[in-house]
Amino acid sequence: MTEKDKKEQILTALEMKSLVKQKVYDQTFEVFNLLKEILQEIKTEFNSEMQVKDPRVEFEYRERSQFEIELKVAGDLLIFSMHSNIFEFDREHNVWKLNYVKGNALYSYSGIINVFNFLSDSFKYNRLEDLGYLISRIFVNLEKHFFVEGKRQQEYLYNNFGKSVLTKEILKDIVLRIVNYAIEFDLLVPPYDNVKIASVAQLNEKVEYHKMKTGKRLGFKFNSDDVS
User: Fold this and answer.
1) Global confidence as pTM
2) Helix H or strand E encompassing 134
3) 11-61 pLDDT tens trace
4) Residue range 97-108, pLDDT digits in tens
5) pLDDT digits over 131-156, tens only?
């Protein structure tokens, strides 16, 4: 192969990958904008139907940035974050076993929307040491086929990748499952030995909140979490 042939091969591969990645980005961003609509609808629907009229348990929606939005549900804060880059799965991932991906490896390129669960008080009181948890990841490819990693997402796992397009109806169902999981994912008391000592300086500087890291769990594993 001549040097010219090599250059042409590199340029062709680069152009193809660039076009695919741009298409994946566009599809993911479209889904993310749809997600904004859904969160606002959920806020309006639930607030109007809530029997307990208390602002402390209302749903609140806010756009943090172009790629980050949040839904506050009483004491929980769900942050939906779209990554601006496009990803490929490692060769050990089960997605490579699917005929859909075997037929065209370019279908494996995916955008990611991460969903984190924090305590709303962590932001309200600026408790910088508090913990948040990744409770869901939504993967979207160039055909807007998708799958979801996370709790309560059994119907949308990787083995369905390539079988259905991510519609507004499906996305809303995914979000409602996420909200339900966050509500049932309770705050646990931290181990006594982790918080039994505090210095005078910490108390005087009012950083006792930081000493006691607040979070719903002390670890995060989808497979071992006992909440199904």
Assistant:
1) 0.82
2) strand 133-140
3) 777 778 899 999 999 999 999 999 999 999 999 999 998 877 777 788 999
4) 999 999 999 999
5) 888 999 999 999 999 999 987 777 89
- What does the block give as tokens for 170? 């499906």
Q: In what order do the strands lie in the sheet with 59-65?
A: 59-65, 68-73, 76-82, 111-119, 133-140, 146-150
Q: What 3-state DSSP class applies to 159?
A: helix
**Which spans in the chain are helix H?**
3-49, 99-103, 120-124, 168-184, 192-195, 200-204, 208-211
b/e map of 140-166 (b: 16 or more CB within 10 Å)? Answer: bbbbbbbbbbbbbbeebebebbbeeeb
